[in-house]
Amino acid sequence: MTTDIQNHASKVFSAKDLVYIRRIAEQELAGLPPEALDTVADRDALFVLANGEGEQLAIVEGRDAAFAAARAHEMRPVSVH
Predict the structure, then answer these.
(1) Tens of pLDDT along 9-27?
(2) Following DSSP, what letter does each residue of 19-35 receive, concatenated?
(3) Nearest to 51 by CA among 10, 9, 15
């Protein structure tokens, strides 16, 4: 038996317009081509935008810029710690 809260949570977390934003992990940086980081001023300020399946949609410099990019593409950003 599912509750109203479980139904609501299921809809929220499976929403197609939801994008998760988190700081990029150090091992992910190692997997990027060197030229991808040529113009990055602060590697500690890189954030990943990912869909519900964990697929990376973008890497953006700056948390505020990541949220702005998500909203510019009509997505609902959620911070992941």
Answers:
(1) 555 555 678 999 999 988 8
(2) EEEEEPPHHHHHTS-GG
(3) 15
